Amino acid sequence: MRQAHSARAEAVEAPCPIGSAAKWLDLKRKDSKATHVTEESRSPPPPEGPQPEPIIADRGQPATTIHLVGKAGLDAWLAARRPAQRAQLAAQKFRAGAGEQAIFGEGESWQAVAGTGDGTRLDSWSLARLAETLPAGAYRLAGDAPDAAPALIGWALGQYRFDRYKAEPEDGGEGARVLLVKAAKAIAPALAEAAAVMLVRDLVNTPAEDMGPSELEQAVERIARRHRARLRVTRGEALEREFPMVHMVGRAAGRAHAPRMIELEWGDAAHPRLALVGKGVCFDSGGLDLKPAAAMLLMKKDMGGAAHALALARLVMEAGLPVHLHLLIPAVENALAGNAFRPGDVLRSRAGLSVEIGNTDAEGRLILADALARAGEGEGGVRPGLILDFATLTGAARTALGPDLPALFARTDETAAALIAAGTASDDPCWRLPLFEPYREWLKSDIADVNNAPANGFAGASVAALFLDRFVPGGLDWAHFDTFAWRPTARPGRPRGGDALGLRAAWALLRGRYGGKAHG
Known about the structure:
Elements: E1 24-26, E2 55-57, E3 64-69, H1 74-79, H2 83-91, E4 101-106, E5 109-115, H3 128-133, E6 137-141, H4 152-157, E7 177-181, H5 187-205, H6 213-226, E8 230-234, H7 236-242, H8 244-250, E9 260-266, E10 273-278, E11 280-284, H9 293-296, H10 304-319, E12 324-334, E13 346-348, E14 354-356, H11 364-377, E15 386-391, H12 395-401, E16 407-410, H13 413-425, E17 431-432, E18 450-451, H14 460-469, E19 478-482, E20 486-487, E21 497-498, H15 503-514
Parallel strand pairs: 2-7, 3-5, 3-6, 6-7, 10-12, 10-15, 11-12, 14-18, 15-19, 16-17
Antiparallel strand pairs: 1-8, 4-5, 8-9, 9-12, 13-14, 16-19, 20-21
Helix pairs in contact: 5-10, 7-8, 8-11, 10-15, 11-14, 13-15
């Protein structure tokens, strides 16, 4: 899994459908008459051919043993080692602290040991450093090791590398570190979650020139084809008519980065309807309210919400959850040009509300507003039972909670509590912030129904969430993740760069609420 695209990433199967008027493309039909236009990519292609899985069933294959030892059991474990082995471990200053590891000789071979600190339960990252640093080869945990199932995802993610643009792979192409696991049923869900996180990382890490609205659409279509989902892409005059704020935000971009609304539907219409929405600002200059250079440097990641929603949608389809899935990704570039939308403009929205533009750099909430309005409409008189949206929306959320903790907003206490509990259980924590009703007055405009960016600067994350709340139809269960989608500092299994923050919490909630096939 050293490549930018994981072993589970789909190969490019077809160019994306192009047309000025939107229509559903039924990807179940191989003889579809939809118009197609090839859009060439300027980036290096993803690696071809399957890559070895980092976790496989243990059938007695030759492998190097890994011991897991906590501080409480260290003395007893050392007593069972030979004097020469104890000397080797002492020379490496192994004390069984969390994250510590060492190797020692065993006959003509060697074994590894990792510390688990004061805990007895493994978490998602207990094996990640081993996966990063051990040489390529096959490994198995010693028979007295704790249940490894929670840590399998970290073993897989510890081998993630984004080296798409490098002449040589970062690890020199030495190969995978393969963990042999006796609990075979734990393998598929761990690999599925790891692949979903890697998808987010790949999409966010890719520069904007190679991950514009068109490339984001292609990523959705590849997944739609694999799972026989229906795809609908709205652009041009149809976009201006049906999703006017998405059109306005993205209209200043060049033709190759034209705005669009990407929708995917999958599943049985008789099942509960589930809507997933992701902010797809593929690059954010700030518009006419231009960002400073330092703030613009990471803006390739401003489509991180779309990456989260797409990865979650893929998990839903892979697991066969009994839902009628509706994925919506408004994909734009917030660019500068003579036709860019301006501060002071009043935009109309799909929901019928007028929006005064207080700041063009608060564009994400505009495109999400149109997407959330569409999600809330449902289909055939059936509205979604749950709407989840993901967005790299505000710097205020990062000021409040830092880069590692997504801000969660929810209309119901039950959904908020379930998401927080799911995040804690899956080592993907989130923190609830309030939809504080008195702050809604800060969104008032003298000339329109609502202003997109109050001037006072207070409670920016909550006010942005209250703005979105205006566009979600009343009575619907809705939750919003304001996520960073980026790791500024590397940790085991979590390299610096794009990352999924809130994805696994949301997936755990959906599994608990809807169930699914065995590996879901």
